[in-house]
Amino acid sequence: MNFVTSRASAIEKLNKFVDRNLFEYSRLRNFDYGPNNRSNISCLSPYITHGIISELEVIKKSLNKFSFSKNEKFIQEVLWRTYWKGWLELRPNVWTDYLNELKKIREVFKNHTDYKNAIEGNTNIECFNEWVKELKENNFLHNHTRMWFASIWIFTLELPWQLGAEFFMKHLYDGDAASNTLGWRWVAGIQTQGKNYLASEWNIKKFTNNRFNNIKLNENAPPKTTDKTYTASKLEFNNPQSLEEKNLLIFENNLSFEIGDFKDQKFKKIFLISNKNENRTIELSEKLVKFKSQLIEDQKKRLNEKLINCEIIDLSEIQDLSESSYGLYPTVGENLDFINTNNLKIEFLYRKLDQFSWQYCNKGFFNFKNYIPKIITTFN
After folding, report:
1. Count of alpha carbons within 13 angstroms of residue 244, beta-carbon side
2. Cβ-Cβ contacts under 8 Å for 300 (sequence gap 6 or more)
3. What is the pTM of this model?
4. What is the set of domains in the chain, with CATH numbers?
5. At residue 322, does pLDDT exceed 90?
6. Is the C-alpha dihedral spanning 260, 265, 270, 274 positive or negative?
């Protein structure tokens, strides 16, 4: 498990996966062979999350190799994050409520023995303990394993899903507010209300090639409940008709300006925004902070090579900019929270993929899935 912090490495990883392993993806994707054998999955999510490579790049590369019908499952998985983000954009209070709940629950559980044992990988469930270790060492978990992990956390260890989502965000290289929060809500049974995900011993054994024993789980737990409901807002994500020559702010989710939708637009100066833990509600691990910092440095290096005037500044320094700026939209999450809390005047610029796709995120993923061919046709 090696995530080199450069766009060149991301492209290399993409090319190798498409050439060698994409063909078997649909058949093998649910197997977790352990951190030393990830050939059956792409491991591209840490780069896609930070915009080092785009979803459209990945999809185009896969379609150059195989037809849509042979690629459909892989393309669906790539666009899951686009869907989750769109779903949350239309219901931003889900994120706000999650953080408010988390603050209260933290206080209640800060000295809780079962919680401490869980985050230290000191439970009586062998596979769970191994996954805690893997998460901390590699800052990555197989997607199927994330579902098992969350299910065990919520239904067998009986810990609040909010703390589990925080634990993932603290360590995952590919963690983002939408996919992480909504994924944990889905396992708990409150994203699709009344429908939870229950990990089972046979399923874990089958898809880990019997790597684990001692898997005694609660396999009959009812879904969690909530009295909160969220209606999708009717939002439009429009860009200005013409852009003035202003400064541009780039956040940690859009770190490939030179291939983006606004690459041909002239800006006075580009500011790459680094968000340290001081401005975060969820404190990130040192390794994750370093990972993000190095990706930002790599973007700066690439911009400098193109003679583009840019500078890395801390999120708190946005307040000191003397004039209003454009900002590549950071999506619902910690960066946007800081901007809104401080009433900063930033005019957001939206990616074309998000503008087009988010209109189909008002319902469930199965509805969104019907529009994937239309999305691909529009951009490919």
Report:
1. 8
2. 272, 310, 311, 312
3. 0.97
4. 7-89+358-379 (1.25.40.80), 93-207 (1.10.579.10), 247-349 (3.40.50.620)
5. no
6. negative
